[in-house]
Amino acid sequence: MNLTNYQKGFLSLLLAGLIYGSFGLLTRQLAIMFGDFTQVLVRQLIITLIAFLVLLWRGEKFWISNEKRLLVIIFGLISFVNALTFTISANLIKVSNTVFFVNTGSLIGSLILGMLVFKEGFSIAKGLLLSLCLAGLVIFTYPIQLDASLLGILLGLAAGLTDALSNSLKKYLKNISRMVLLFNQFVVSMGFGLLILPLTQETIIKGVSASSIIFALIFGLALLVVGNATIYGFQNFDLNLGSIVLASELIFSLIISAIFLGEFPTVNEIIGGILIMTAIVLINIRIDKAWFRLGKRTNS
Fold first, then answer.
1. Domain boundaries, position 219
2. Among residues 178, 174, 186, 180, which one has the least CA distance to residue 63?
3. CB atoms within 10 A of CB 296
4. pLDDT at 1
5. What digits encode the pLDDT tens for the residues 209-220?
6. Which residues pair with 205 in a beta bridge?
7. What is the DSSP letter of 93?
8. What is the four-CA torsion angle of 47, 52, 58, 61, rounded to 10 degrees?
9. Dihedral, 88, 93, 97, 101 alpha carbons, nearest 10
10. Whole-model pTM?
11. What is the distance between the alpha carbons of residues 233 and 241, in angstroms, rounded to a whole number?
């Protein structure tokens, strides 16, 4: 069976959602040894080293041409801000609420950027899929603490919006090797992180743990795969619909938590997960179908 690039893009984003779903488990393992901010830098250091070795082995150039360099620096800075805002938000409000605000910001941001920058169409069908996914998110994270820390809520939304910006740049920077783009992204992001690290005053290493070191390496490899999958996925798929596909991470995280941590989903999480999965399945059904192409023309 020959898959179109659009279908490959969908599957790449679904793979990214699966790997994203494991990040909660991996983050907990790293927290045994590293502080919150430090583990972000450790993950970025590992993926930078892996990308460096891959580029060295391939004999590719490491740096971006001058005309794209500013955009890549912005890309790296956005990645750093995204990781920082998510981490702080998760420390100020419930993690489930942070996930809700991040996904909401990402879905709305990608819809606006997709229409304004990439001229992606909007249709009743797309609106229904977005509404279905948002309804699933609301039920999944209920009760949503709107009376919680305002800063935590705003930073969660900021993390979602920077996620949408990051995915937009992945879509825009088409003519750059994925590995070169990832290397430069994390070099810039890690550079900003190292400048700010002294200001956090956190304990960098809580204690040496062999398991945390192993999981850090696994996390770095996972980030490399996710980076490649999302770059390919968004370069071959609708930006807003792709953000809905990435919301599958919530469903995969439930499965992974149940298997490895013995944490079983609540009724709300199951119902919300079903709604999100329904939206994703409908996206898959509509690929290359006439009603999707009709949706594309709605914006013209």
1. 5-297
2. 180
3. 15
4. 65
5. 888 889 889 988
6. 34
7. S
8. 120
9. -50
10. 0.85
11. 11
